[in-house]
Amino acid sequence: MSSTSITTTDARTFDDDPHPQWLVVRSGGALLGIPVAQVREVVRAAGICPVPGTPVIQAGIVNVRGAIVTVLDLLALRTGVRAVAPASIVLLEYGARMLGLTVDAVHDVRQVVGDSSASGPEGLTPIDSIEPLDAVALCARHM
Q1: Could you give the CA distance from residue 141 to residue 138 in angstroms, rounded to a whole number?
Q2: Backbone angles phi, psi at 62, to 5 degrees
């Protein structure tokens, strides 16, 4: 079992920081860590308009300050089962445009510290229960 740990931190990103930061989200009971560098912002899931004839992985579209954004269902991408009532949309940088992922909850931003062979400092959360997720790559496979 790995003893790599993460700690809660603010959402700043540092180019010279050797420890990546993750936005920790919940989807279908799983805790997932999305690299902060991929995240543009988080918005409420209100206002998603379903698009008839689209696959189950597409939750719909949403208007974000005048931009129409395609929103994918993270639970459906991972399991094939559509989320019942997602709470938030994580907006990702997807090339020159935005793409949204629905999630059940957004927890916080955490920073990976230590290495897999060292025990983490007291008070840090083990990342064993948080699954790293390359959200952009996952979306790219389905677009």
Answers
A1: 5
A2: -145, 150
The residues, any chain, with a CB within 8 Å of residue 68's CB and separated by 6 or more, are 61, 62
The answer to whether the beta carbons of residues 112 and 124 sit under 8 Å apart is: no
Percent of the chain topping pLDDT 70: 76
**Token duo for residue 129:** 């229960």
**DSSP helix/strand/coil, 2:** coil
Q: Are 75 and 83 in contact (CB under 8 A)?
A: yes
Return the DSSP state at 114: S
Phi-psi region of 133 (alpha: psi -120 to 50; beta: other; left: phi over 0): beta
**Average pLDDT, stretch 57-72?**
94
